[in-house]
Amino acid sequence: MPTTDRKPILLDFEKPLVELEARINQIRELAEENEVDVSDQIHQLELRAVQLRQEIFSGLSPTQRLQVARHPRRPSTLDYVQAITDEWVELHGDRCGADDLALVGGIARFAGRSVVILGHQKGRDTKDNIARNFGMASPGGYRKAMRLMEHADRFEMPILTFIDTPGAWTGLDAEQMGQGEAIAYNLREMFRLNVPILCTVIGEGGSGGALGIGVSDRLLMFEHSVYTVATPEACASILWRDVTKAPQAAEALKMTAHDLKHLGILDQLLPEPVGGAHADPLKASAVLKENLLRHLAELDQMTNAQRREARYQKFRSIGVFIEAAT
Amino acid sequence: MSLFDWFANRRKADPTSREGQEREIADGLWTKCESCSVLTYTKDLQANQMVCLECGHHLRVYSEERIHQLLDPGTWMPLDQGLQPTDPLKFRDRKSYSDRLRETQEKTGLVDAVQTGLGQLEGLPLALGVMDFQFMGGSMGSVVGEKFTRMIERATATRLPVVIVCASGGARMQEGMLSLMQMAKISGALERHREQRLLYIPVLTHPTTGGVTASFAMLGDIILAEPKATIGFAGRRVVEQTLREKLPENFQTAEYLLFHGFVDAIVLRTQLKRTLGQLIRLHQPVKALHSQRSEMTATLNTVDQPSTLQNLLLDY
Ligand SMILES: [Zn+2]
After folding, report:
1. Is B92 on the interface with A (CB under 8 A)?
2. Distance B38 CA to ligand 1 centre (A)
3. Which residues contact B36 (CB under 8 A, 6 or more apart)?
């Protein structure tokens, strides 16, 4: 988990909050120096700060949510693995010549049972981010994921996937190694697996790179996460031919958890601690664990065939069109 | 003047004046090859399936003509023609999606970017889906996803092979996540088709990129591509931005994918129907072959072939 003693990273819309907190501290120091009791006033101001934080975070625009989703301190796949599991063995390699650090996977003990966990992994700092390619997985990452999902199916372990990527890697090497094929293969084969699959968007869900580990029985999503067909930046530069229109694109793309719930794509919205998951990672982890367990219990009640049929129908029903008689 | 010269002249002949030439191009009487710039009489080009008679360049073909090229005359039975796109996100960029849809529909006479149906190819029944690049770049939204899914489900239920001619820039951004999810939906339908041991052949034409490449385009039992077609996941410019050096000359061409092992064969358009027929026949169960043979024998009986040949066929 990110340690609390590190200097907080502030988003622009958090400014009024930070100013208020600074003032509270100032008053407290002055009061101590002058030996005056201002505890009542401080208490009032602190209540105001909590209220302000709630106000700010309940009314975030899609662009602001994207900032929270991309927050450098936002809990990552490995953070959640550490928080919600009792044992964890990370496994490596696609057995085709690559091990992609942008997509991690392994076997864990989760509430007493063995599960396979897969997820995109962003870095904690610049060096780590370079090693992990900013969470943009290569074909080797998707093939490693598939290999581990086959393993899960063979040993009857449920699969938990965590989505947190700006998108699949778009380098020359990725094209050469068949990025399209690697993702496509996972999309098809994930419908074939018998074990329960639970997918959670923990941060940024970027297009095909997210979907490559996103075919599931249940789709969960943290409140400030986003899931989109294209990043607002890419969408703005293609449709508006102007990248500065990204905020308009973010709005138009309907990529927030609330939007996706409304469109029938999302099964479960996970509330975040006030200030975002990074403000209280342990609380966010508890919410995640509780919800994963509940959905897993539901899926346990079904036979393999029922689960596969329901998974098929879940995706089968997505889409909006008009049907006229011909 | 030899007949050959006459044909050659007819192909190359510059219409008398420049204005006349432009008018005739505009009228569609003549077509200019975008590769070698030679003007060809459009009817001659169509007779050669829009493959340049000079340089062999494959000019773009839209869904109507493609269906005509691939299927036996009079066998096309379109499916789900009543499915129409709508604007679920009320999406607006420089123009509203609703207006864009209406304008494109008026301009192209198409309802959306795909035609699906059943038909016969060299007498072989199959399900055929053809994407149409002139409809918003062949982009995949809810209608494309639903039409493909219904066609594949129908092919699974009636045990038909599926052929999809791809031509698409990828997911349709104006339908947001609904578009992205069509990738999964179609892949799921293909999984069921595959589970029944039925044959699926995508034909990748220029261009096949983005979400289409990352789903059904790459899921064929056998994957065919047209010469020099652009095929890739990310756009060329996007890839270029990640690099300091220049991209290889043939980057993201059908030939590049063949070299790296991602397509089975590059097939000339003029050979496509024959190749598909051959591949489908090679996958027919032995029982079907038997029934075809008995049909042949029946034919032979009626034309009263020498009995030795008849015996030969019966023994075979
Ligand atoms: Zn030419």
Report:
1. yes
2. 6
3. B52, B54, B55, B57
